[in-house]
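Help! Submission page says 'invalid entity' but I think these are all valid:
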Amino acid sequence: MTTDTATMHDATDRQAPDIQVFRVYIQSPAQRVWDAITSPEFSVKYGYGGEVHVDLTPGGDYRNDTTDEMKAMGMGDIAVTGRILEVDPPHRLVQTWVAAWHGEETTLTWDLKEYDGGLTSLTLTHDCTGAQNTAKDVEGTGDAAQGGGGWPWVLASIKTLLETGKPMVGAGA
Amino acid sequence: MQDDLVFKALADPTRRLLLDALFEADGQSQSELESAVQPHGEMSRFGVAKHLKLLEEAGLVVRRKQGRVQLHYLNPVPIRLIHDRWIDKYTEHHTMALAALKRQLEES
């Protein structure tokens, strides 16, 4: 994939970090946050949307389908594929994550921690070592409306959905 | 409440310097960050630790253990939330005002 380039980053020649860490606090029980990241009922209502289907067993498949909008852009049926490496509901999920538009294998770790009062911290660690194009796309230095919101925008939209019951403006589908 | 902590954290030049250093190279140890701020003025080890603690409380920095060292990572999510809460609101207002102006001009 030497001809591949990052699609949605800022104009500088700065390298995106190989390991990126994102954390958001959500006023919602950990189980609900877990459901949001692992079920299609939720996944179509935040981020860039598309149904998420996960076989929650080690070695199981992970798939994020494309939305109609993505299909119209010529993206095919699947946006992201992956494999489950570690599952401990509703605390920890480790998976590989391969964006179809880059084909680079990366590793995602979701850590959930529930505090008193039903507040949950969701920490996402994305190891993009050797996958600079993916690293640039997910760090969120681009315009969210153009698909460059990365994980910060996706996590913000999960927070909005779970706290208000409604999708964030421009998120999901 | 979280917003207050973020604004407070951003209100200090050394803390902004620390965030810039992490933007340039994410995942640094405390001693690496000490060297990053040192050329910009005397700063004790304790001073840097204190600033990092405030940044962490505001959610702008997340610590992660890598082997035996704690590495610091820039977490852009709180800034994203402030952007969505404040900036979008006002840019949307401008867009709507322009759209209204356009409609008015077209109708007249």
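Support: the input was valid. A stray whitespace character was the problem, and the output above is from the cleaned input. Chain A has one domain: 19-164.
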